[in-house]
Design a protein that fits this description.
Helix content is about 30%, strand content about 15%. By secondary structure, the chain is of the alpha+beta class. The chain has a single domain, classed as Glutaredoxin.
């Protein structure tokens, strides 16, 4: 998201990342990701529950998830300090100013993320699907 932040700004979209860790982890997260936008902390995970985001060991255990771990390690990435609930999966939601949900994505497995292109399309009025 950090690399694409300017594309969202072009459409006056405010990016917000909600983590399940404590706010003391924000600095490390910013260093690792380069994300400069708004960060919120929800250690109770109430927002994740409300949105129906999955939590549990089954989200971590799949061939695809394990493959992504090996690819990340091979690419030079390493696990940092554990921040928040490691079993909590996330997702992405885009809400317009009238509080209508224009886009919703819930991760099913670890490393499962929406395509940034799909998120940008959801905030670009010219590319938004009909009815969305």
């Amino acid at each position: 998201m950090a690399k694409s932040a300017s594309q969202f700004e072009k459409y006056n979209a405010n990016l917000v990342v909600i983590g399940s860790g404590k706010s003391r982890h924000f600095e490390e997260f910013r260093k690792k990701t380069g994300y400069k936008g708004r960060l919120l902390s929800d250690p109770s995970r109430k927002a994740f529950t409300m949105l129906g985001f999955s939590r549990g060991i089954t989200g971590l255990m799949s061939i695809k998830s394990i493959s992504r771990v090996f690819s990340a390690v091979k690419g030079g990435h390493k696990q940092g300090a554990i921040q928040g609930n490691t079993l909590q999966l996330g997702g992405a939601i885009i809400v317009d100013p009238s509080y209508t949900v224009d886009y919703f994505f819930a991760s099913k497995k670890a490393g499962d993320h929406p395509a940034v292109e799909d998120l940008i399309a959801a905030v670009d009025p010219k590319r938004r699907p009909a009815g969305g």
